[in-house]
Amino acid sequence: MSVSGDQMSASPSRFIELGLTEGISTRVNELGIEIPTPIQEQAIPVVLEGRDVLGLAQTGTGKTAAYLLPLLQRITENSSSGPRRAKALILTPTRELAHQVATSIRDFSRGMAIRYVVICGGERYSGQIDALKKGVDIIVATPGRFEDLFAKGVLDLDTVQHLILDEADQMIDLGFYPAIRRICNAITSEHQTIFFSATMPDEMRRLVDEFLTDSITIRIPSKNVAADTVRQKAVMLSGPMKRPYLTKLIEDAKEEQVLVFAGTKRMADQLSSFLVAEGYSVDVLHGDMRQMIRTKVLRKFKSGELQVLVATDVAARGIDVTGLNLVINFDLPQTPELYVHRIGRTGRAKKTGMAISLCAPSQRRQLVAITRHIKNTMEIVNAIGEPVSLQDMKDPGKPAPGRGWPFRSKGRNSKPGSFKAGSSKPGSSKPGSSKPGSSKSGQARSAHPKSGKPNPDHYRSDHANPDQPRPDRTRPDHAKTGPSRNGGSKKQAPRRNKPDNAPRGFYVEPDTPPADRPVKKKDKSRKPKWSSKKKADARRNRERQNAARKPA
Question: Other C-beta atoms within 10 Å of 281: how many?
Fold first, then answer.
């Protein structure tokens, strides 16, 4: 069953009219939330009924409260006096989002006897294990750490009645699809399954078909994939101009808080160091940091101690700062979905925000994909603010050919061709294969063995025959002594003799060995070693003989 936003009443309703108790509705109003969002208006009654739900809505629309409020009410109504055992499992893609969900549980459940624990990486196992042993009602976890504790036998999933996947598409993007399947299969008891996502990739469809039973799909239609409260702009400029333009944007923000997204952890560290050198209050947030440090940085940014926070995509969905008005994409994200997640950090709770992307001309294709995904609602300008059309931008096209292109398939060290003199290649070892002074051009020239270029030093007027040794470079055949590396005397072996009629590069051993070299006599008593070919031939002969001896 599918429910569209157009089928629901457009008039806002109070939370108490959606089926929530008066206590929960009052608590929500105390937090400043008086009118439910469309996803909350449609999801809360269905979750209260215990039905499986697939919620598809863009980020920043209040999906967390859409499943938390009815979940808290159902846990409170079904509470027992026995020992506490986990009744709900909430999976999130990142640590920051897990702590954000835990904060929402704390705010919504004030005055209720609800216990919860956050299980994620970057924190000690002992604290999480102790909390589980004391007993909890809700487990908020990331898939990786949850599987670690489940393998240790600490987690008991027999009493889980509610399974919620928050930002399921992001978990799939991070490679948690196999872990999600294993966790869903590990919950054998009858339970309610709720999936919330911003997009619907193919893996998500397979999860829905496998684990949702008689589910209701809630799809919130929107003119734009991104929230309407976010004004989007792309600035076309070259790479070296990005950092000066970034400082200009921060200056124009007039000390308001700014969130800057970088494409890699290394770039995030570099931007943080650059902005610190410029005199701004900056810190960085990425996946290589310990959880304690990441939590501290987020706390400082939320409290207003930091003006600028440089982050990567891993931390994109875990940042929820009230009143954040400006998000800057220093690097364009890899996918349009990541772009939506980034800019969803601003324009939250029906407040306006600004998202500016710094784009190089070589990233035109990425920008086109993003504009198509968000229904062409982005303003595109150049560095001085003049409007730019994507059709007028120069397509980078095929990369310029470099060294060796387009012959790279022949190998990195492939050569253009060898020089031939006469009918043989240079350096041929066949006697008589090349005649002195013969070439196609009638000139006696040679090719350098390494570069393939003619070497004029090989043929001089006083050395016309290349097969004869040069008179100015003759060496004695007897052994001579010379200094060694350690300062002592080292005896050098005599050079081989070279016949006059032998071509260049061809040498033979001297007829008589030197007197100081002992002659090694052959041991005729030893049997000659057979080669592998001879062994194979002998084996085949034996097989033929054995086959011939067998009776027909």
Answer: 16
Cα(537)–Cα(530) distance, rounded to whole angstroms?
11
C-alpha 435/C-alpha 265 separation (Å) is 65
Whole-angstrom Cα Rg for the chain = 39
Among residues 194, 74, 193, 92, the alpha carbon closest in space to that of 140 is found at 92
> Tokens 């196609």, residue?
440
**CB 105 within 8 Å of CB 162:** no
- Say if residues 517 and 526 touch (Cβ distance below 8 Å): no
Q: What is the DSSP string of 148-199?
A: HHHHTT----TT--EEEEETHHHHHHTT-HHHHHHHHHH--S--EEEEEESS
Query: 3-state SS of the chain: helix, strand, coil percent to 5?
Result: 35, 15, 50
Q: Check: CB of residue 132 under 8 Å from CB of residue 146.
A: no
**What is the arrangement of strands in the sheet containing 162-166, beginning at the earlier edge strand?**
2-4, 216-219, 53-56, 192-197, 162-166, 88-91, 138-141, 116-119
Domains of the chain: 2-219 (3.40.50.300), 230-382 (3.40.50.300)
Q: Is residue 331 within 8 Å of 312, Cβ to Cβ?
A: no
| Sheet strand arrangement including 308-311 | 282-285, 308-311, 258-261, 326-329, 353-359, 230-236, 379-382
Q: What is the largest CA-CA distance in the chain?
A: 114
**CA–CA distance from 514 to each of 67, 474, 478 (Å)?**
96, 20, 9
What are phi and psi for residue 320, nearest 5 degrees? -130, 95
Q: List C-alpha distances in Å: 541 to 410, 533, 534, 538.
A: 44, 12, 11, 5
Distance between CA atoms of residues 226 and 219, nearest Å? 15
Dump the DSSP string for 291-337. HHHHHHHHHHHHHTS-SEEEE-GGGGGG---TT--EEEESS--SSHH
The CA distance from 37 to 65, in Å, is 10
Predicted TM-score (pTM) of the model is: 0.56
HSE-up of residue 131 (Cα within 13 Å, Cβ side): 17
Please give the full DSSP string across 215-241, using - where no structure is assigned: -EEEE---SSSS-TTEEEEEEE--GGG
pLDDT at 130: 93
Provide the residue count of the chain: 552
Q: Is 349 strand, coil or helix?
A: coil
What pLDDT, on a 0 to 100 scale, did the predictor assign at position 397?
Answer: 44
In the chain (552 residues long), the average pLDDT of successive 10-residue segments reads: 50 74 90 89 94 86 91 88 87 90 93 92 90 94 94 90 92 89 90 90 91 92 67 90 94 90 92 93 87 86 91 73 88 85 80 90 87 82 85 50 37 40 43 45 44 46 48 48 50 53 51 56 60 80 83 65
- What pLDDT sits at residue 12? 35
Query: Phi first, then psi: what are they for 284, rounded to 5°?
Result: -120, 155
